[in-house]
Specification:
InterPro entries: A-amylase/a-glucTrfase_C, A-amylase/a-glucTrfase_central, Branching_enz_MT3115-like, Gal_mutarotase_sf_dom, GH-type_carb-bd, Glyco_hydro/deAcase_b/a-brl, Glyco_hydro_57/38_cen_sf, Glyco_hydro_57_N. The chain has about 725 residues and is of the alpha+beta class. The chain is about 35% helix and about 30% strand. The N and C termini lie far apart (about 60 Å). About 40% of the residues are buried.
Length: about 725
């Protein structure tokens, strides 16, 4: 009968930069290795394999035998190796030069590793903009695949998606395959016979077509419940056996063979898009709920199925609008990228070229997509992934400083629009610290990079509404009604998993950024619980605009920020000065002066600090006082009286951060915990530890009051750990 249908199987394996070692290993044992074990028994069934660079580097070190097996399969022609941007960035989330740089760098790496040409690539999260065509072609790519929904949005009917199309930008031509959604939902979850029937219908109605299945390799064993289904219950072998049995009309092949032997179906320009769920997640929470409600309302209306292809969600880049923390991370990444480009353009000395290359690799690692968005899984909400991004950004930035600053002990301060909001922020930097202040937004310290630990202690995350929070609330209602009425309450819990009890009681939302130098005027006598719940505020300083001025000498830099605002009916003035001295480059000093205060009125002033990335729930992460006495783990709620020092230690990270107060204060501490969804279910995640020194006082006769707060960071343990690890790896 001959080949009437070509089937291309594309497997995409990925683990993000910064993910836990155990997750890498578990995915290897449950998915990557057993998948190859089975496919090796079917040498006549080829497939295309994409592995993200972050995972590939781990495999090279942890399981070189896997690399050898893939190399053998590539040499035999069973496996086509696909490339892509090295560390799996969203292409829309990085500059054009880095798109091309990441793709070409990974192509070179794969060629050396496997000795095979790299002609096609995987587009991370299938986030697409038409201008990427020229970027991919300039990076040496011939073809890629995107979801069939991209083609639907361009007006291509389903029956016209059995092949590939040419797409053009600035005269460059790229071949793009539609990735079949029906197959993505069937494989590996339905009986293989059903998939063969579906393919047979296409072959009968559209002979000589090409159909592509491309999806996550982790669904073959690493996703919950899939290992037993795919391997122990034999789904994968049954599927491959059926492909063999139907080889008289069905040819399993690769993308490269298809473009070499099959003509394109035509030309097509694709709109900015991603897969359907991603475009919905990019919407604000209220818009997501509205869209879900409308789809549910009209799903049974005649003609709705024909209308669905024209429904659009949001635009991926708006994740940076939806989550301000993403914009901070993105802006920091751009700053590093621009500095690196500038040094490349002006040229560096030959001795500095290895440093520049290392900085570029660190930058590329910091562009890994997973924490730059949030959808069905944790992403942005996972602190260890955000911390990994900042770790590599700080490493890249520090390497670039080695080139630009020959003096090992240096200071600088500058004002510019660092977070892309059309207002000027202030960057205060030394060989040990980098701080970013936002005078136009409360005078907050919104990023503080500790170079010795490669850690941003302000990689915080606000608590905000998410659409799935309604599921948690409904679960609580079902539980309450069930307990009262004696009814079965399992229906919601059967659909979703809750990793901790009573999550609905933890649903709180923040009305101002969880940063540092957040200035509060509280009601006198207000208690900790009121503050935890966002109450007790009398002033308008929390997010008010401050006027700023900079000063620099050879020995220190300072930023002075002043605001006239209100505390209840009183107009007062607050000036805070942030200083960084050369002889104490690991310490920031914050001097507060309050003036024009009423002289006969009790006042209550507090300064909020947040410490992120210092984990909770562990005995080696704790608070301590001026005597060095441990006060509790970093998720503790504390209401301390009249102390002049509080510290936070993360022994695993090797970081000790301490606040010293010139005037003893009462101090509140409490955790910021979000509730997000992940592969394992809904879970409570510790995001930061809030520390608020606060003072109740009456102003002096001149209506003044002042205090100095010193924040010191000791990274000696982190640096000793890094040296030990470097020595071990060198050995």
């Amino acid at each position: 009968m001959g080949c009437r249908l070509r089937l291309v199987l594309v497997i995409h394996n990925h683990q993000p930069v910064g993910n836990f070692e155990g997750v890498f290993e578990e995915s290897y044992q449950n998915s990557y290795q057993p998948f190859l074990d089975v496919l090796s028994e079917y040498p006549d069934i080829p497939f295309s394999l994409h592995t993200s660079g972050s995972l590939m580097e781990w495999l090279v070190e942890a399981h070189p035998e896997y690399i050898d097996r893939v190399r053998g399969l590539a040499e035999s022609g069973q496996v086509e190796i696909l490339g892509g941007p090295f560390y799996e960035p969203i292409l829309a989330g990085i500059p054009r030069c880095d798109r091309i740089g990441q793709i070409t760098a990974y192509t070179d790496y794969l060629k050396k590793l496997f000795g095979t040409p790299i002609r096609g690539m995987w587009v991370p999260e299938r986030v697409w903009e038409q201008a990427f065509v020229s970027d991919l072609v300039d990076a040496g790519m011939e073809y890629t695949l995107l979801d069939d929904s991209h083609f639907s949005a361009a007006g291509v009917r389903a029956e016209k998606m059995h092949g590939y199309y040419l797409s053009e930008d600035e005269g460059r031509l790229l071949k793009i395959f539609p990735d079949n959604e029906t197959l993505r939902y069937q494989i590996p979850f339905t009986d293989p016979v059903e998939t063969i029937h579906y393919l047979k219908e296409i072959a009968d109605h559209h002979p000589h077509s090409v159909v592509v299945f491309g999806d996550d390799g982790e669904k073959f064993g690493a996703w919950p419940g899939t290992y037993d289904h795919v391997y122990r219950d034999g789904w994968l072998k049954r599927f491959l056996d059926l492909l063999r049995q139907n080889s008289d009309w069905l040819k399993v092949t690769t993308m490269s063979e298809s473009v070499d032997t099959v003509s394109p179906m035509g030309s097509c320009y694709l709109p900015d898009a991603s897969y359907r769920e991603m475009t919905e997640w990019a919407l604000t929470s209220d818009r997501q709920l509205e869209l879900a409600d409308l789809k549910e309302k009209f799903k049974d209306v005649e003609g709705f199925d024909r209308l669905k292809p024209y429904l659009r969600g949001g635009f991926w880049r708006n994740f940076r609008v939806k989550y301000s923390e993403l914009n901070e991370m993105y802006s920091r990444m751009l700053l590093v990228s621009n500095r690196l480009q500038s040094l490349e353009a002006t040229g560096v000395e030959a001795d500095d070229l290895p440093i520049l290359h290392e900085a570029r690799t660190e930058l590329y690692r910091a562009q890994c997509n997973c924490p730059y968005w949030h959808g069905a899984f944790g992403g942005l909400y996972l602190p260890h992934l955000r911390n990994a991004i900042y770790k590599h950004l700080i490493a890249a930035d520090t390497l670039l400083e080695k080139i630009t600053h020959r003096d090992a002990n240096w200071l600088e301060v500058e004002a510019a629009d660092f977070n892309l909001d059309a207002r000027k922020e202030v960057r205060l930097a030394s060989n040990r610290l980098v701080g970013f202040l936002a005078p136009a937004h409360g005078g907050h310290l919104y990023e503080l990079d500790v170079r010795g630990a490669k850690h941003n202690i302000l990689a915080t995350l606000n608590r905000r509404p998410e659409p799935y929070h309604d599921i948690i609330r409904k679960a609580a209602e079902e539980r309450t009604e069930g307990s009262q009425n004696g009814e079965d309450i399992g229906k919601i819990h059967n659909a979703v998993r809750f990793k901790q009890p009573d999550l609905e009681k933890k649903l709180h939302y923040d009305h101002s950024p969880r940063k540092s130098l957040v200035d509060h005027f509280y009601q006198p006598g207000v208690d900790l619980e009121t503050v935890v719940n966002g109450g007790g505020e009398l002033g308008d300083f929390v997010q008010g605009v401050y006027l700023s001025s900079l000063r620099r000498t050879d020995d220190y830099c300072e930023v002075r920020m002043t605001r006239k605002g209100h505390v209840g009916p009183y107009e007062v003035e607050l000036t805070k000065t942030v200083s960084l001295a050369k002889n104490a480059a690991g310490t920031l000093e914050f001097h507060y002066e309050l003036s024009h205060l009423p002289t006969d009125v009790p006042l209550h002033f507090g300064v909020e600090f947040n410490f992120a990335g210092l984990a909770a729930g562990a005995s080696d992460r704790y608070y301590y006082n001026h005597l060095g006495k441990q006060l509790g783990q970093l998720e503790s709620k504390l209401d301390l009286e009249k102390i002049d020092r509080i510290g936070l230690v993360d022994e695993w990270l090797g970081l000790d951060a301490a606040l010293d107060l010139s005037s003893p204060a009462n101090i509140w501490t409490f955790p910021i915990e979000t509730i997000s969804q992940s592969e394992g279910g809904y879970e409570l995640v510790h995001q930061s530890s809030v520390v608020i020194p606060h003072w109740e006082f009456v102003a002096d006769e001149q209506g003044r009051w002042s205090v100095t707060i010193t924040l010191s960071m000791d990274t000696s343990a982190a640096q000793a750990k890094a040296l030990s690890e470097a020595a071990t790896s060198g050995a």
